[in-house]
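Journal club prep — side note

Before the paper discussion, L.F. wants everyone to see what a predicted structure for a comparable chain looks like in token form. Sequence:
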Amino acid sequence: MPGCFFSDTHFGKWYDVQHASDIVDKINSLDADIVVFGGDLLDNYARDSQSIDLEALAGELSRIQAHTGKFAVWGNHDYGGGASRIYEDFMAECGFRVLNDESVLLAPYNILLVGYDDILMGWTDPSLYTLKSDGFHIIIAHEPVVAQKIQNDTGENFLFSGHTHGGQVNIPYFTAKALPTGCGKFVHGLYDAEEIGASSRLQMYTSSGIGMTKYPLRFLRMPEIICAEFSSNT
């Protein structure tokens, strides 16, 4: 099953909606069965609501094609600045189902897709971090520290996260100081169960995301869209 994950677009003051067309074209070129957005659609809704063209953005995101489905989770910026009033409805308008502590069985592949609420601005019942099925789980959580909460004794698990921007400006010492709460030690890239400190069979990829926040630049950390191939025994 080819899947696509993108995150942290932060459309607004530092990243114009005009970039959405290129993002959508790239995603569609990957011919994915599922497309998942990892949160933080807008950078600061309160600041940018009068200047950002949401109609144009909806038109572009609606063009994203996925054979099986389009899904999303909440990020902290999707709550802040009043964005919580529009985020879920906006994503639905674009064809995305927002998973808020919910799971969806991708029946053709026998894969369970699990999406968690944002850990900083939302709330998740701690019991929901324990996955009881013995199948393969694709887990989506905006902040990578969620990986340390996942418990699953019998299944296989792969978690996609964002939030960190990979540091955005990748300079020793400065990057570590500038990382937002919720990153832990998981700045960018692939982490195995030992690195996560998980007792479960768990891997995680933390994406550098696409847009920018706080500073109108990236340095030594390119934006990225992730394409991954998953399979599970039926």
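L.F.'s comment for the group: The longest strand covers residues 156-161. Keep this in mind when we get to the figures.
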